[in-house]
Amino acid sequence: MQEALRARSIVDKIFDAHSIHDDSGRTLIYVDRVIAADTALPAFKALERSGRGVRRPSQALHIPDHFTPSSGRTLDHVADDEMRAFISGTAAAARREGVPVFALGDQRRGIQHIVSTEQAYAQPGIVLAATDSHTPTQGAVGALAFSIGTDLEHALATQCVWLKRPQAMRITLDGRLARNVTAKDVALAIVARIGSRGASGLAIEYSGTFIRDLSIEGRMTLCNLSVETGARFAIVAPDDTTFDYLRGRPYAPSARHWDQAVLFWRSLASDRDAQFVRELALDVSTIEPMVTWGNNTDNAIPITGRVPDPDRETVPERRAQIRKSLDYMGLAPSTPASEIEIDQVFIGSCANSTLEDLRAAARLMNGRKVVVPTLVVPGSGLVKAQAEAEGLAAIFADSGARWGEPGCSMCNSMNGDVVRPGVRCASTANRNHIGRQGPGSRTHLVSPLTAAAAAVVGRLTDVRQWSES
Length: 469
Description:
Blueprint: H1 2-5, H2 10-18, E1 19-23, E2 26-30, E3 33-36, H3 41-50, E4 60-62, H4 81-96, H5 112-118, E5 127-130, E6 144-147, H6 152-158, E7 160-163, E8 168-174, H7 183-194, E9 203-207, H8 209-213, H9 216-226, E10 233-236, H10 240-246, H11 255-266, E11 278-283, E12 290-292, E13 300-302, H12 316-329, E14 344-347, H13 355-365, E15 374-376, H14 381-389, H15 392-399, E16 402-403, E17 424-427, E18 442-445, H16 448-457
Parallel strand pairs: 3-4, 3-5, 5-6, 8-9, 8-11, 9-10, 14-15, 14-17, 15-16, 17-18
Antiparallel strand pairs: 1-2, 2-7, 12-13
Helix pairs in contact: 3-6, 7-9, 13-15, 13-16
């Protein structure tokens, strides 16, 4: 009785509703929906070898994104034979199992997290699993979304996975952003504040006045970067912004069931007295445009800051880490962030490829010319079509940037889009690990606005001082 009456977080409510069996500290939970990317071919082959199939094909979805080219919409544009085999083989296996496929050439296709959210495949209160580590992006609409790695075969075959019940952390964000500061800057500031392991294994819930006023696209960016703190889940309780966003989308409840769905979704909010293992509160008005300097996402500083000096670090391990990162990145200690010159720019990835992101970048690039090679990749075919209809693609083209087909592109460098060794790239991606964008690549993570500014001046710069052209 006490368990039933205890105050619960939104994560508790969704987890409890999907729990099937507890055993040795783990819980078997039901998975409402599964996404299989073009990396899923081994899972489908394993199912075939074992004589098992996909248990509920209508509750799975295949979206190729990792290996797909930004240079074109067909397999002919995939130069690598192995990547081409993964794309075609996974799609064929999914079709044999009756799994819906958003294939190359399908306007709905794109980065799985962007596509799932814009299609309302991700919805409040559901459990959604996929193999990509940034699956928690979809928690922006109130889904309990997470990465399952090698458990994909089990999820497809049984519609269930084993999980350890996560403890919840709440991050409360209040205030208003300064001009040209974005959700990406907030996300990088949070990662820098708590570190790459600061929320290890936890479920982060975002709340506060800033979140209530934030778009779904901004919430997606926050949930996406939460993974870089070690969090297993990230979520925003559904509200009117969520409902307005989801209404009428392909997988959303029909008009007949809409009111009933919203009534249930409103009940998911964390109880007033819900307990959190950790709390963090931030006033977002104090956050500046952020840039990373090293090889971990938490190596982030304000644009007015300086690269750290290892000689001022008292902890030997930290001092060695800083020196290693500066050596790899080709940076001198104490270099002002605003003096770092850039060789290349990438605007895209599951962190920043929505229509809102592209509008922001285009607004700054309008009437200006890029001085370094710049690639802009939309998050989905629908985003691409709308960006073209609004004239955003024309702005990018007029500036000298290249406009690509949707997919992961230069974020993961698995598809022909790479940063060459020693080249310094301002990137709107979510990771800056050694070699992430290509062997020897040097990545500075930034917002779409900061990336756009870097493209036209060739260095990192404080976008708070910029105006539309």
